Amino acid sequence: MNTDGNNAAGTIGATKTSFGIVEHIRDHDASGVSEIANDLGISKSTAHNHLKTLAELGYVVRQGDEYALGLKFLDLGDHARTRHALYHASIGEMDDLVEAVGERGQVMVEENGRGVYIYQVKSEQGLQTDSHIGTTVDLHTTSVGKSYLAFCDEERRNEILDGELTRLTTKTIDDRDALEAELATIRERGYAFNDEERITGMRAVGAPILSDDETILGSISVSGPTTRMKGEWYHTEVPEMVTQAARVIGIRATYS
Amino acid sequence: MNTDGNNAAGTIGATKTSFGIVEHIRDHDASGVSEIANDLGISKSTAHNHLKTLAELGYVVRQGDEYALGLKFLDLGDHARTRHALYHASIGEMDDLVEAVGERGQVMVEENGRGVYIYQVKSEQGLQTDSHIGTTVDLHTTSVGKSYLAFCDEERRNEILDGELTRLTTKTIDDRDALEAELATIRERGYAFNDEERITGMRAVGAPILSDDETILGSISVSGPTTRMKGEWYHTEVPEMVTQAARVIGIRATYS
DNA sequence: GCGTTTCGTTCGGGTGGGCCGAACGAACGT
DNA sequence: ACGTTCGTTCGGCCCACCCGAACGAAACGC
Questions:
Q1: Which of A73, A150, B47, B193 could bond to B76 as cystine, CB 3.0-4.6 Å?
Q2: Domain IclR-ED: where (chains A, B) (predicted)?
């Protein structure tokens, strides 16, 4: 009765269902049994059994008559990012960078062909956007992502850029050749701009974090509205500060 | 062939196995198929199938010939704590508090009878301890936990303190009556001390975060070594600052 | 106050798939 | 070149996952 057919052989259906439920709860903040059963196309009793199991394990908690995500995921998430040397190396330095620039800063690593923010520092002028810790983004639409693409292996880059380049704004670079040209420029000067390529009205400056053996660990950026990110400040001073911070973080990451 | 027997009726075994694998990876940073199969008492092929499924979902990633936790957990963990109004309310204020006191600060909420740190601010004098984001602690062994116990419903307190009170140091309050007396004191003066009750050589000052309708949302604390946490500073000045911060956070949490 | 709806939960029964053991292939290290 | 150990694949058995139906509780409207 499943409409799928996308079952790779030798995979566990129950696990997929459990995580499907978890993700449903994540996307709705909290969910009830019937709602989940309807949305996922499973029976109420099945949804109930999964939730009972997840609750017993501590991964979901009851909130009145609904279920919410348990804080055990916080522990898992922390372990996941602690693996990355870049995380420890960037913490203090990013705070300094954000203070100096006065705009939001973020640290990104690549996973499964997408960029994941593992650390984020808010600036004084708190500007709400949709990016949180753990948010994933298309690499070609951000300054952090382009920094990464510019400095990773060509082989890996081809794997990542294999498919269609999604277009998020009118300025998104969705042509592969144009993107390669942009990456060459970034590779040459050592940092990347983002001029409203992901969100209209937002600009950013990013730079790669390189280990001492030239392998790329991830990248960092600061981002703010076009009203403040402009002129000499945006084109030379901020890039100077970002690349300097990236150098320091790279060094700290290699000696950890 | 399972040695357990602890299967509550109507729960999904495959889900338990999958999360068992995830937790094994967490505890070992990275694990291989055979290692997991041995430690969990399952066959290699079963472990393989679970890992294949988890990898397909993006919750584990291959690292050479081992598996590590994927950053998808970071997203889930962030959503789990974002549910708590206390998290947003405490961010800026805790940083200020830590700067003023000069010692590490943490924010705790209760889940399943244990305390979970959802935010932590390191101080200048970086002191390494074993507590991270997502760490769980016994409530009766910390200043945050005792603050919570002192101000939550009596009914809830009885549920939580039902079992044995684990003893972590010679100073841990492991007697129920003594603990109740301590809680009464805390309730009266509005804040809690921790004098080497969890880790020898560490002291802390904690205070509850109360919503305007007197319900408790969690608690905060600052903690440092006994060499610095002493005298008038520890006994009156720090408590003053902690309770003041707690008041502000409580107000911010109710109007969010 | 009573019908109505919708919630979460429990209960069996059927069968699909999860689990295992054995075999295979590759990568080391000696 | 050998032995060991890794990850992976392949069949088959039988258990447990999934479902549908029935139950109990709570919240609604008339």
A1: A73
A2: 72-255
